[in-house]
Amino acid sequence: HAPEKLAINNFSSAKNVIAVMSGKGGVGKSSVTSLLACGFRRKGYEVGVLDADITGPSLPKLFGVKGPIEGTPFGMHPLESSTGIKVMSINLLMEQEDEPVIWRGPLLGKVVGQFWTDVVWTDLDYLFVDLPPGTGDVPLSVMQSLPLNGFIVVTSPQELATMIVKKAIKMAQIMNIPILGLIENMSGVICPKCGEEFKLFGPGHGEEVSKSFNIKFLGKLPVDPNLSKLCDQGKIEEYESSLFTDFIPG
Amino acid sequence: HAPEKLAINNFSSAKNVIAVMSGKGGVGKSSVTSLLACGFRRKGYEVGVLDADITGPSLPKLFGVKGPIEGTPFGMHPLESSTGIKVMSINLLMEQEDEPVIWRGPLLGKVVGQFWTDVVWTDLDYLFVDLPPGTGDVPLSVMQSLPLNGFIVVTSPQELATMIVKKAIKMAQIMNIPILGLIENMSGVICPKCGEEFKLFGPGHGEEVSKSFNIKFLGKLPVDPNLSKLCDQGKIEEYESSLFTDFIPG
Ligand SMILES: Nc1ncnc2c1ncn2[C@@H]1O[C@H](COP(=O)(O)OP(=O)(O)O)[C@@H](O)[C@H]1O
Ligand SMILES: Nc1ncnc2c1ncn2[C@@H]1O[C@H](COP(=O)(O)OP(=O)(O)O)[C@@H](O)[C@H]1O
Ligand SMILES: [Zn+2]
After folding, report:
1. Is the alpha carbon torsion for B104, A164, B233, B42 positive or negative?
2. How many other C-beta atoms can be found within 10 angstroms of the C-beta atom of residue B188?
C-alpha cells in the first residue's frame, strides 16, 4: 500500500514539481537545481526552490537570501531572490546558518513534507526540489509524498560518482518516477593562462550512463571558477549558461 | 542519559578509532580516509577502514576490492587490500555495487553498529571510519556507539562547503568528541600544459576555520588528476602523498 501523496499548502499550487538528485554528494546538485530555476525564471515562469537537504542546506547561500523567516497564520512564506525565485530551506528558519541540525531520519522526512504543506508558495509553474545525497529517508519521503513529474540526475566524471549515481537512478526506477534528463557536471576545466582545456576527474561517463538507462542527456558543464565565485557571493542568478535551453519549454 | 558504547567484536580489538567527517558531500572524505589509512599502513601499523556511508559507499572501489563477502560463525571477515588494509562496507555484502540501499535512518545507524560488533577486524592499531554527508542518523550513531579518539575534518575551498563543515564541527563539539585535525582538499590545480597553478573554487578557508575553532590544520591537497585516476582504478594505495607525515606517529 503506497503512502498517500500530501496535498500542497491551502494557498498554493504548483503545475510541475521536479526533483534534482544524484545519490553522491558534491557533484553539483544544488548548483544545477539553482541554474535550472534561473533558466526557467528567465523565460518568465513562476519558480520556487525547495531545499530538501536538511542537514546540508545550500540554496539560501547560492541565492544570497538570509533568514530567519517568521511564521504567519497561513504558513511560512519563502524568501524571494533578486530575480523573484521563491526559496525555502531549513537554514532560513535558523538563527545562524552554520548551526547543525542533528535529527534522525523520520524527522527529516517529516520536515520536508512540511515544506510542501505549510509553505505559502502561491501559484508556481515549476517547483524544483534539491535532494540530499544518499537514498535514505528524505529521497524516499519526497518520492512517496510529493506529486513529482520526474527527476533530473546530476553526475560528475569520477567512476565513484557514476557508480553511486546509478544507485539513485535505480531507486527512481523502483519508485516508478520518470527521469527527465541527466547532466554531467565538472567535466573539465580551461586554464586561465594558456587556454588549454583538460580533464580533472577523468573522461566522464554521463553520455554512456544516459544511453544505458535510456535517459535524455542534457549536456556537460565544465568546472568554471567564475561559477564558483558567483556561488560564493550568493549571485548564482548572474551566471550565464546555455545548458538548459533545449530542456526549458517556451 | 548517554547511550552505551558498543563492545567491539569478540575476536577483535582496535587501539585507536578515528572518524573522518565533513558534513558536506563530495569534498573528498572517502579519498582522505583512504589516504590516511595508506599513510598509517606504510608505517607498519595494522589498519582497518569502516565505510559508514551506507547509501553512498565508496571505500571498496577506492581500494579495488569486490564482494560479496560470506558470513562465518565468528562474524563477517573484511576484505584485505593489496597492502593489507582491512576494508568493510555495505557494498561488499551486495551482489552488485550499483544496487541502491533504500533504508530509513534507524536501520542505517544499526548497520553501522553491526560493522563494529559483527566484523572480525582481528587486532588493529587504527580503525578509520568514513562518515556519510550530513549530521543525521549515522554520524549520531557512530558518535554515540563507537569509542572514538577523535575526528579528522575535511573541507574544500567553496564558501558553501565551509558553512556546512562548520555544522559538522559544531556537532562534534556538542557531542564532546575532540577534533584531531582539519584538511583542505581540492585547493587548486596545476595546468598540465603550462604549469600554471590556479584556484578552481576560490581562495579556501581551511586555515581560517582551523584557527577559529582551535583545530590543528593538517594541510592542503590540490586537485590532482593522477589521484583521480588511481581512485577510478581502485589503486589509491599507489598515490604518494606527504600530506599526513606530521600527523602519523612513529
Ligand atoms: N561546474 C562548476 N564550476 C565551478 N564550481 C562548481 C561547479 N559545480 C559546483 N560548483 C561548486 O561546488 C560546490 C558544491 O556544489 P553543490 O552544488 O553544493 O553540490 P551538491 O549539492 O551535489 O553537494 C558549490 O559551492 C559550487 O560553488
Ligand atoms: N584532491 C583530489 N584530486 C583529484 N581527485 C580527487 C581529489 N579528492 C577527491 N577526488 C575525487 O573526487 C571523488 C569524490 O571524492 P570522495 O572522496 O568520494 O568525496 P566524499 O567522500 O566527500 O563524497 C573521488 O572519486 C576522487 O576520485
Ligand atoms: Zn595552462
Report:
1. negative
2. 17
A 10 A CB-CB count for A120 gives 16
Q: Which three cell numbers stand for residue A9?
A: 499548502
- Out of A100, A167, A229, the one facing B171 most closely (by C-beta) is A100
Ligand 1, closest atom to CA B26? Answer: 23
DSSP A44: T
What's the half-sphere exposure (Cβ side, CA atoms, 13 Å) at B66?
A: 6
* A26/B161 Cα distance (integer angstroms): 9
CB B132 within 8 A of CB B139: yes
Cα–Cα distance, B204 to B157 (Å, whole number): 4
Kindly state the cell numbers that stand for B222: 590540490
Query: What residue owns the CA closest to ligand 1's atom 26?
Result: A228
Q: In this predicted model, what pLDDT tens digit does every residue of A13-43 receive, in sequence order?
A: 999 999 999 999 999 999 999 999 999 999 9
Residues ≥6 apart with Cβ < 8 Å to A150: A18, A19, A177, A178, A179, A180
Tell me how far apart the alpha carbons of residues B244 and B249 are, in angstroms, rounded to a whole number.
Answer: 10
Burial zone of A52 (CB within 10 Å; 0-12 exposed, 13-18 middle, 19+ buried): buried
Task: Kindly state whether A226 is in contact with chain B, defined as any CB-CB distance less than 8 angstroms.
Answer: no
Who among B56, B171, B198 is closest to A134 (CB)? B56
**CB-based burial label for A237 (10 Å; 0-12, 13-18, 19+):** buried
pLDDT in tens, B99-138: 998 888 888 889 999 999 999 999 999 999 999 999 999 9
Which residues in chain B are contacts of A57 at CB distance < 8 A?
A: 164
User: How far, in Å, are A193, A225, B32 from residue B197 at the CA level?
Assistant: 9, 13, 22
